[in-house]
Amino acid sequence: MKKFFTLLLRHWVKTPVKIMLTISTVALGTGILILSFSADKILDEQVVSRMSENGIIVFAANGEWSTDGSLEMERPSQWDSNIFERLISDSGSIKDVAIIMDDPFNEVTVNGQAYILRSSVATDPSYFDIFSLEIIAGIPMTQEDYDSGFKKVWISEATAVMLFGSAEKAVGQKVIPPGMRFQRNNGRSQDLLTQYNVAGIYRNPPEVARRSYGIADLITSVTAILPSEGNVTRKMDFMSERFVVSSNESSVDKVHSDISQIVENNYGYDISLVVWEGTPKGESTYMEELRQSVSIFTVSVNILGIVLLLTSSLGIFSIMVVEALGRKREIALERSLGASQMRVVKEFWSWSIMLSILGAVIGIILAFILAKPVLGTMAPLLGELSENFAEASGVKINSVAAGFFLAIGCGGFLGLLPAFSAVKGNISDTLREG
């Protein structure tokens, strides 16, 4: 350590600007690399890991894809409503299954004012578990609500604010979906309107998840929209052709295979089955495009950080070259007095390592100082991910460790190269030249 400070002082006196620029560039390269690794980690946590934290989520239906990409359902369904229980009991990977009826009504009326909804769904209580929807006001959907067909709805926090001003004010309020026109014998017509009670408010899902899976802004139970007369079980069998599942499997193909096997075992081989990743309406390239965008972004940023670090480490190489040329006779004299080549190389290596450590430590400090503003400016480049990325912006500890050791590795390696040339050659010739 004493020799390092002696060398640092000596070089500082000779070339203060060069030493300062070298340490500064190493610090800048290290800081940028740490921030790029942190950006990579944040994106993985906020997108890739979060989207898969509950396993693979896929939709399945009894039907086929038409030539225009739309889904043509089998009516009546080739399986019955017992399919949901069988999927869970017969599979070791499927965790939850929920029936799906997409957009039972696309607008509601509140206090005489009509509002257009982005999406709605008629389903069962498992839907909340599949998409990790957290109730923040009111009560969750229960099995009793589902079995009894109570006229209740659950809405997202954003929808509650739009319709009623806040989540708390929304609980207990009434919403009215579009009704049917009833013609009387006297020629007069009347709208048959059904009021639904707002039973609970769930926290807004992440925008990425909402768009990827088509998570609804309004949820009601399938039984709530069924006509009260007639055989309910038969109606449920008729409407059970589409569902969503969450699975512990690692790919959509494996989930597809699992569902196909269970369907074949219980309902026969001549069953039309489609399984897809996307929204209730059909396949979507959004998730795949999102994953590709994240991958391209993180690889590009990491390459930029590594290139900057390598470029900045060239300053250490330059200092070591000057050191080797300036101390050529001194090194030859040390070797004539018994110093081994390895000892000389070790001295150069130690000097380059200490310079790298000094620059890396300053770079770490810079990374913590610049984390919020730098990563914040990157957020708009990520589109839908910008909000989550901006909120999570910060330096990750494992990124600090990776940046620190890479800085030392680059500086130490480039600092070694001039040392090998410094110990080559004949000692006597070098002394005579001096």
Tell me what the structure shows:
By secondary structure, the chain is an alpha+beta fold. The protein has 2 domains: 2-50 and 289-433, no CATH class; 75-271, no CATH class. The protein has 16 helices and 19 strands. Strand 2 (63-65) and strand 3 form a beta hairpin. Helix 2 (16-52) runs antiparallel to helix 11, helix 2 crosses helix 15 and helix 11 (286-326) packs across helix 12 (328-336). The longest helix has 41 residues, at 286-326. 36% of the residues are buried.
Integer count of domains: 2
Structural class: alpha+beta
List low-pLDDT spans.
none
Number of strands: 19
Sketch the major β-sheet.
7 strands, mixed
| Alpha plus pi helix count | 16
pLDDT average, as an integer? 79
Separation, N- and C-terminal Cα atoms: 29 Å
Strand percentage, roughly?
15-25%
Helix content percent band: 40-55%
Cα radius of gyration in angstroms = 33 Å
Shape descriptor reads elongated
Brief overview:
With about 425 residues, the chain is an alpha+beta fold. It has helices spanning about 1-15, 15-50, 85-90, 125-130, 145-150, 155-165, 165-170, 205-215, 230-240, 250-265, 285-325, 330-335, 340-380, 385-390, 395-420, 425-434; strands at about 55-60, 65, 70-75, 95-100, 100, 105-110, 115, 120-125, 135-140, 150-155, 175, 180-185, 190, 195-200, 220, 240-245, 275, 280, 280-285. Helix 12 (about 330-335) packs across helix 16 (about 425-434).
